[in-house]
Amino acid sequence: MDIGVWVSLFAYFALMIAIGVYAMRKATSTxxxxxxxxxxxxxxxxxxxxxxxxxxxxxxxxxxxxxxVSGLGSAWIGIGLFVGALFNWILVxxxxxxxxxxxxxxxxxxxxxANRFPTRALSLRTVSAIVIVIFFAxxxxxxLVAGGKLFESAFAGVINIGxxxxxxxxxxxxxxVVLAYTVVGGFLAVSMTDFVQGCIMMLALVIMxxxxxxxxxxxxxxxxxxxxxxxxxxxxxxTEGLTFIGWLSAVTWGLGYFGQPHIxxxxxxxxxxxxxxxxxxxxxxxxxxxxIGAVSLGIFGRAYAVRNGMEVQDPETIFIILAELLFHPLIxxxxxxxxxxxxxxxxxxxxxxxxxxxxxDFYRLFLRKEATDKECVAVGRVSVVLxxxxxxxxxSDPNSQVLGLVSNAWAGFGAAFGPLIILSLMWSRTNGAGAxxxxxxxxxx
Length: 445
Description:
Layout: H1 3-26, H2 31-36, H3 43-55, H4 62-70, H5 75-102, H6 109-116, H7 121-154, H8 166-214, H9 220-231, H10 244-251, H11 261-269, H12 276-307, H13 318-326, H14 329-367, H15 373-394, H16 402-426, H17 432-444
Helix pairs in contact: 1-8, 1-14, 3-8, 3-11, 3-12, 3-14, 4-12, 5-10, 5-11, 5-12, 5-16, 6-7, 7-8, 7-14, 7-15, 7-16, 7-17, 8-12, 8-14, 8-15, 9-12, 11-14, 13-14, 14-15, 16-17
């Protein structure tokens, strides 16, 4: 492995940890600081933090892999996600920012629901916290799978730690760096690193498709289209071979946005209500560029592989393969950092939301009602580590498929919290009994 790759990666790791230390000094003195950044996020940080924590390794592994195999038909997932995210910013963001302050200055989703429906407060808080911790353990595991795949593909045999496999080493390193800045700096560190990671991800998804298409061996748009038509004409069709049920399943992924705690908690942390439209415009622009880049990478990566006689065993690793093949080692290291950024931004957000629920909705609610802020911050840090270790155990199977793991957790959150969040924010007649029933049935199905 060229030294340039390591230089870029270590620079990335150092930057993430440095941000964590900075955030620790600025905003970790109270529970609200550690778990919600004191509600001080600027529009650009809130926007990219929501976007980066949303997309995960799926943006650079799962979506390009699906495009590589199935062609433009898989792009409907991205379209559905874009529309869902837009409505999430329009319908949920301003109302959640306003109402979480109005209902007892809630700093977690379970606390907001409990304050919104006080007659069922204890049940709502307990059930919602259990759902969050269970599903996020699976969701976080998918990010660790992506980190393991990166090291397995890019650093095979380079790092030898106690006889561990390359995949296991990747899982350990990914989790270790995330824990370092999340435990130390809390929500502000996670949000600030998300902003930097979001910038890195977007830049990578602009650079790589352009080089794949127009660089040496790419042949340009016309040649790429011709190659794909020769391989399989359906690769360039939006609908051929796609059933109505398949199309509907793809475009409705975006409905899950309304119930993703690690995304909507960013809305709660935006500095002011007036900042929400600004954050929305920034966030949707970022998402459009990133999704187009990921779709282009997968479809044109397939054309590049065919034109240059490449065998791709695992389509989900096309980003990793092309990063090593087409770029100078320093740039390759930067592109690997982009993949790690996609993975880590989501993992850290999910760990912190899980930690917040364990601290505020279990520890403070049942074990230590009079716990001080300092004590809760300490418990929150321990909880981050605990959930991370559980996720690592779940991710121990190197044959896990990123898209499959994410879809299970995504669907679980979407069904459990999506309808409930929308109704609790927009319909005054929603009641506590209905809220609990909807959450339990949604999570179970």
